[in-house]
């Protein structure tokens, strides 16, 4: 009996090894269709992962996000991830190097319904949580789009496992990228696009509305407004194919027209005043976003982004040390100025304090501009010379100045107000370095 059992065990092991070898043989000789299928599956998994990150980032109220809710229990997190795998695949794109890109979507109302259900099902775990099921409806106040979308990218499993730091294959024949895997290229593209959106957001927020008001002042009114503008910017079109430099940098451009920005700002203001706080911020109705066109004569706003593949997807020997230009001493400094303001005659109470604070900030920004325009670029050129010689640079310098942040406000006993603002000069150096002068 023992001999029979032993023979059966040996036979089972042999069959297992044969089956395993067959699997490896099949993987080693996958057809093109099988490679595409594996790449699509990997891209879908990545898309679902990205969708989960987007859902976790949804705001419920001013201090609470979905990620806070699911952090209460691992079971809630697992249930939500399982639910999100039901997101609809709306597009599949196969690229020349064997990679696949998948886009998935899911209605926001459906996500809210599932969050409510999870709250009720796991009531024992979340009964001490600070929100109730009905509170999830507030998500629509921060995210007004009807559908949430996410993209994922993937490569065949064999391509992922076969790649290593010592054995990489060319990425679409791009010079300088011969040792970058397809996965690394995709991640560099993604990083470049995120960087482009970030840079575009700064340019949009730096647009001037009046002589002393910028879009960033409007955005600062509310987290909801900021969320709305960020959502709009992430939907801006990409206007160029990805560019790959021999140094291993991926670049991409995004662009939006000034009129599109003006239209969106009007929509956000209308939504905010009528839908959220009709009794507050009445003065927002008087903002004329159309004036932006006068301050920014260019019809479009364009921003570039850069990204690099993660080191683990690059053959180490192929990475050449970067040669950085010599950075002047002033570029590492942060310029800080203090403005002083008083309230106009006849004003009193909180109104006087607000008007004095605004006057102080205007004074601080005026002083900051004077300091910036006096910066010595080289032995013979200041920023003022830089702007006078090249008219098209003026708007860009003003946009840079608009990036200054208010860091402190002091209300003095005599009714005056002091405001401190500061700005890192590295951004000015980047403009100079790019040969804009």
Short key terms for the protein model shown above:
437 residues; alpha+beta; three-stranded antiparallel β-sheet; 11 strands
Note the topology.
Blueprint: H1 2-28, H2 32-56, H3 66-70, H4 74-84, E1 88-94, E2 100-107, H5 108-121, H6 123-126, H7 139-142, E3 147-154, H8 157-162, H9 182-205, E4 208-210, E5 213-214, H10 215-219, H11 223-234, E6 243-244, E7 250-257, H12 258-276, H13 292-295, E8 300-307, E9 334-341, H14 349-373, H15 383-389, H16 394-402, E10 405-411, E11 417-424, H17 426-433
Antiparallel strand pairs: 1-2, 2-3, 4-5, 6-7, 7-8, 9-11, 10-11
Fold and architecture overview:
The protein is an alpha+beta fold and 437 residues long. It has helices at 2-28, 32-56, 66-70, 74-84, 108-121, 123-126, 139-142, 157-162, 182-205, 215-219, 223-234, 258-276, 292-295, 349-373, 383-389, 394-402, 426-433, and strands at residues 88-94, 100-107, 147-154, 208-210, 213-214, 243-244, 250-257, 300-307, 334-341, 405-411, 417-424. The relative contact order is 0.08. The model is unreliable at 4-28, 158-170 and 318-322 (pLDDT under 50).
């Amino acid at each position: 009996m023992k001999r029979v059992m032993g023979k059966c065990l040996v036979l089972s092991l042999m069959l297992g090894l044969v089956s395993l070898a067959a699997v490896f043989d099949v993987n080693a000789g996958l057809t093109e269709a099988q490679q595409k299928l594996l790449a699509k599956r990997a891209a879908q998994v990545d898309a679902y992962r990205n969708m989960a990150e987007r859902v976790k980032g949804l705001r419920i109220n001013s201090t609470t996000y979905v990620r806070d809710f699911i952090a209460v229990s691992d079971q809630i997190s697992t249930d939500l991830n399982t639910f999100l795998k039901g997101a609809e695949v709306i597009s599949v794109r196969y690229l020349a190097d064997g990679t696949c890109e998948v886009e998935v979507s899911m209605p926001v109302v459906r996500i809210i319904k599932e969050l409510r259900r999870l709250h009720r099902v796991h009531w024992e775990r979340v009964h001490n949580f600070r929100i109730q099921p009905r509170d999830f409806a507030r998500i629509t106040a921060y995210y007004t789009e009807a559908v949430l979308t996410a993209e994922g990218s993937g490569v065949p499993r064999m391509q992922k496992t076969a790649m290593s730091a010592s054995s990489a294959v060319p990425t679409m024949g791009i010079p300088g990228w011969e040792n970058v895997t397809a996965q690394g290229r995709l991640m560099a593209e993604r990083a470049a696009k995120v960087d482009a959106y970030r840079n575009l957001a700064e340019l949009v927020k730096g647009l001037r509305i009046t002589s002393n008001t910028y879009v960033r002042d409007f955005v600062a009114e509310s987290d909801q407004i900021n969320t709305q503008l960020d959502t709009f910017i992430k939907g801006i079109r990409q206007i160029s194919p990805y560019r790959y430099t021999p140094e291993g940098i991926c670049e991409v451009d995004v662009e939006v027209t000034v009129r599109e920005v003006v239209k969106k700002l009007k929509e956000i203001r209308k939504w905010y005043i009528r839908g959220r706080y009709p009794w507050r911020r009445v003065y927002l109705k008087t903002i004329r976003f159309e004036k932006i066109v006068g301050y920014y004569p260019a019809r479009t706003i364009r921003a570039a982004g850069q990204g690099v593949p993660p080191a683990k997807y690059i053959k180490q020997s192929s990475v050449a040390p970067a040669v950085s230009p010599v950075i002047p001493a002033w570029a590492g400094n942060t310029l800080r100025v203090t403005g002083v303001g008083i309230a106009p005659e006849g004003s009193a109470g909180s109104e006087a304090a607000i008007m004095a604070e605004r006057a102080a900030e205007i004074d601080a920004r005026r002083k900051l501009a004077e300091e910036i325009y006096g910066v010595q670029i080289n032995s013979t050129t200041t920023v003022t010379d830089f702007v006078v010689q090249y008219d098209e640079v003026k708007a860009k310098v003003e946009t840079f100045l608009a990036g200054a942040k208010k860091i402190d406000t002091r209300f003095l006993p005599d009714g005056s107000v002091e405001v401190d603002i500061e700005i890192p000069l590295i951004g000015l150096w980047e403009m100079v370095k790019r040969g804009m002068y």
